Amino acid sequence: MVASGPTATPSGASHAQTFRERARQEADRYGPDPWIFVRELLQNSRDAGASSVAFSVEDDDGEEVVRCRDNGEGMSFHHARKYLFALYASSKETSSNQAGKFGVGFWSILRFDPTQITIRCCTASGERWGLQLQGTLEQATQVHGLDAPGTEITLRRRGGDGRLEHRVFDAVWQSARYLHRRDNPRQLMTRLRRLFQRAGLDQMEINILRGILTAVQKSAGAAETAKNTPKAGSTAGEQE
Hints:
There is one protein chain. By secondary structure, this protein is of the alpha+beta class. 37% of the residues lie in helices and 18% in strands. Helix 2 (36-47) packs across helix 4 and helix 5 (188-197) runs antiparallel to helix 6.
């Protein structure tokens, strides 16, 4: 199934401008870090049940491009209309195992100041759809959806200083190390290693990151062991 008509965006230029201004205000509430949207995209992928998330960057004729692709459940066009293109509406409000619950996290992508936003999806049931939005959110064009279940977000902006890959890599590292898979938290380190291997690092950088990952893994394991170890002298009722 392919969604018909790019009608999910706020109708009218004035409405779109108001929506964008409010969305940007909410995005600014997340703090001064302009790369906070990386964390939000990772959380969305995690909440969609993704077992793999890949970030890629490129310089395309003077424009910076950031792409996030996951293999999660995807979202239907109806879901996007109801939740993605509405502020303060979230399908995750009643889900205790999902991170985002306020319906505004996705729009932290506006911190990237994109001139173009492309959303492509495929659901488990085979519904495929895609929209390409102007950075102003005033116009949208229908594009092809994905061929396999998941979601892909592509952001494009003008200019850049050649350090995009380093900044995105750092943002992924800072956020992903605290993020666990919804169904299997212990797969986190495996996924991070695979992500780092795709980043084109040299051997020295790989060795440094391996050391960091090992230290984090040991720390997480020690914390889990301490959490599950009863204190000396505790009663059965206290342990419960």
